Amino acid sequence: MVSGYPDGSFRPDSPVTRAEFAAMVNNAYKFVDSSAVTFGDVKSDQWFAQTIAQAVHAGYLGGYPNNTVKPLAPISRQEAASVLFKLKTLDADPSAVAKFADYSKFPEWSKGAVGSVVKIGIIGGYPDNTFRPFNP
Q1: How would DSSP label each residue in 78-112?
Q2: Is the pLDDT confidence value at 1 over 80?
Q3: Terminus of the chain with fewer CB atoms < 10 Å: N or C?
């Protein structure tokens, strides 16, 4: 599911980008079908173009209102939870995030997804009882 970079490095301490996360998901789930994508920040000659097209076709990754998908931005914890929520076809459980001290920082769109994956143990919080939804 995971491979290194063309220069031979692995970079285990670097944040995972949205495109890298999509590549891991596509590899894990063996997604190969793709949809045409027209995001302003995805050009057909970029390494992640096919990866993003597969993620969009699979239905677990979408773009932003400004027609971007931000493939090179680090994926946040709440975005990763949203992907896993969609892949596992879970029922939203926004109440499950109320236990975190930073509950008020969660955007409404992520509460149900994060709550669901927290509830079943896929992602957890930090020892200080926070989740830190915007962290990579």
Answers
A1: HHHHHHHHHHTTPPP-GGGGTTSTTGGGS-HHHHH
A2: no
A3: N
pTM value?
A: 0.92
- Tell me how far apart the alpha carbons of residues 110 and 78 are, in angstroms, rounded to a whole number: 6
Amino acid making up residue 127: P
Distances (CA, A) of 75 to 16, 18, 64, 128, 135: 6, 5, 13, 22, 8
Do 63 and 69 form a contact (C-beta atoms < 8 A)? yes
Q: Strand, helix or coil at 18?
A: helix
pLDDT 10s digits, 79-118: 999 999 999 999 999 999 999 999 999 999 999 999 999 9
Distance, in Å, from the CA atom of 120 to the CA atom of 134, rounded to the nearest integer, reads 21
Around Cβ 57, how many Cβ atoms within 10 Å?
17
Identify the bridge partners of residue 74 per DSSP, sorted by sequence position.
17
Tell which phi-psi region holds residue 8, choosing left (phi > 0), alpha (psi between -120 and 50) or beta.
left
Q: What is the pLDDT of residues 34-85, one digit of tens each?
A: 999 999 999 999 999 999 999 999 999 999 999 999 999 999 999 999 999 9
